[in-house]
Amino acid sequence: MTAHLPAVPAATEASGAYRGRARRGDMAAIEDDFAEFVRVALPGLMRYGHALTGNPHDAADLVQTVLEKVGARWAKISRTCADPGAYVRRAMANTHVSRWRRTRRETLLADFPDVPAAARHDRLEDEPLWQALRGLPPRQRAVVVLRYYEGLSEAEIAEALGVSCGTVKSQASKALATLRKRLGALVEGGGV
Known about the structure:
Blueprint: H1 10-53, H2 56-72, H3 74-80, H4 84-103, H5 128-134, H6 138-149, H7 154-161, H8 165-189
Helix pairs in contact: 1-2, 1-4, 1-6, 2-4, 4-7, 5-8, 6-8, 7-8
GO biological process, one term: DNA-templated transcription initiation
Domain RNA polymerase sigma-70 region: 41-105
Keywords: DNA-binding, DNA-directed RNA polymerase, Sigma factor, Transcription, Transcription regulation
């Protein structure tokens, strides 16, 4: 015994198939657009992440976490944001600050390891500027990195971090004062 299915007009069937292909085509275009954005922006995002976190491993984790979130919403972000790069940098700064607040710089271990891990020495670890920069609060560090490393204006930094221009100025002023204080002897002695 065979079951009879209602006949679907050919025009309806064809238009339904076309709509499905159009949606798949739109998704493919969105995915291609996001892949191109990542290809172009990734080196700068990794440098920015390294400056925010202080090491390349945490930077890679930060960039991956943010790009996963952004990739899931890329259609809306690319449609509504004038500068998706600024949006991603802001998301990185916010995610880094949130992660920092959660962990409070504590690493809890159940037991001490029997054999200490042989960590590779980061060549920037002993650089006074990197040590001083790493010692800044996350928001101040983000402002300094965006201003002097990425070369953004105060207005662009304010937009990227979601704060006012006044906040950017005050955070930059506090950060530079702290850096001058920490690096003053080196600057005066000609070590920098």
